[in-house]
Amino acid sequence: MTAAVSIGGSHPKLLVADAGGGVRHLPRAALASLFEPGDLVVANDAATLPASLQGAHRPSGVAIEVRLAGWVRFRDPERFVAIAFGAGDHRTRTEDRPAPPPLANGDRLDLGPLGATVERALGHPRLIGIRFAASRARVLQGLVRHGRPVQYAHVPEPLALWDTWTPIAAMPVAFEPPSAGFALGWRTLAAWRGRGVRFATLSHAAGLSSTGDAALDRRLPFDEFYHIPHSCAAAVREAKRRGSRIIATGTTVVRALEAAAAAEGAVRPGVGIARGRIGRGTRLRIADAILTGVHERGESHFELLRAFADEARLTSIAAAAEERGYRSHEFGDSLLIERGTLA
After folding, report:
1. Burial, 88: exposed, middle or buried (Cβ in 10 Å; 0-12, 13-18, 19+)?
2. How far is the C-alpha of 257 from the C-alpha of 261, rounded, in Å?
3. How many CB atoms are closer than 10 A to CB 25?
4. Record: fold of 3-48+159-338
5. Taking burial as the number of CB atoms within 10 A of a residue's CB, which of 18, 29, 245, 293 is the most buried?
6. Given strand 13-17, what is the order of strands in its sheet?
7. CB 66 within 8 A of CB 50
């Protein structure tokens, strides 16, 4: 049994907020009957890395946890942006975790079978750039042997790595699961195909959703790499040409599509970097709707929803979700928000 079922419950819900302000409550299985022939659903097929590493700060001998948060360069797999904590694990709320020992350039970190060096501080005591002293293959082997999925206190039992993989997970490049994809299943995909609803994937290196520090959280999301295959770019172009809707499965897909947006109705295929925040005032060029989780105000994920709906609609959506007891976080229920006219 996967985490999406055992943790999120056997009957996940779906709140549909249409562009006109209406709200419907459906079982999430109803996704299979939604959307029109020609509509395009785009999802993130990134699998999740075991990005949490326990170890020690060699100069002081103090216990440390390092959570990998992003690639410095996608084709340089030994170098990462990371968040460091003192002793402890996911059972303590992230905001209550102690700070790491003072970290200086050149400090060595012993992380199980992996050795790493602090290359530079990044403007906050918890945020560092690190480099592993190993090849790509040995880094990945070390992560598999020693790493665990990044996890938060709202799920107390330890997660297995496969609990964080969506049904379409492919290459492991994400640091937290692109959790909107938990709503997808092979029956839904087959039903869409039978009804003429198109489906495409891209890969986006989804980063951390929380650092435990309010000032650092305001810098989220960090720069994140993505890869858009030619097939996905072609599907977007065709949907725009036909006047069909494009539904982004998750905030990571919105970031990738909008970062790659070229001329109206087109996205550039290939590897790129999604930078900065999408939020109020962002003019979306590609995504017409978003299938996402239930996010809390203040999170960067929630702020992105402001590009789809104004404050009044978001307040109404939040109230409807709270009234019906929608579950938040990565293994919770789902929202489908159609883009409306923003003031």
Report:
1. middle
2. 6
3. 15
4. QueA-like (3.40.1780)
5. 293
6. 23-27, 13-17, 334-338, 289-293, 246-249, 40-44, 198-204, 224-228, 270-274
7. no
Answer whether 3-48+159-338 and 52-146 agree in fold. no
Least Cα distance to 304 among 220, 229, 228, 232 occurs for: 220
Say if CB 140 and CB 165 are below 8 A apart: no
For 255-311, what is each residue's pLDDT tens digit?
Answer: 999 999 987 779 999 999 999 899 999 999 999 999 999 998 878 899 999 999 999
Angle at the Cα of 92 from the Cα atoms of 105 and 104, rounded to 5 degrees: 5
Rounded Cα–Cα distance for residues 143 and 66 (Å)? 12
Number of H-type helices and E-type strands within the chain: 8, 17
pLDDT value for 3: 40
The SS3 assignment for 15 reads strand
DSSP structural state of residue 184? -
Where do the structural domains in the chain lie, given as residue ranges?
Answer: 3-48+159-338, 52-146
DSSP 253: H
Q: Which residues have CB under 8 Å from 24's CB, separation 6+?
A: 15, 16, 18
What is the predicted pLDDT for the residue at 7? 53
CATH architecture of 52-146: Beta Barrel (2.40)
Instruction: Write out the two tokens for 37.
Output: 């022939």
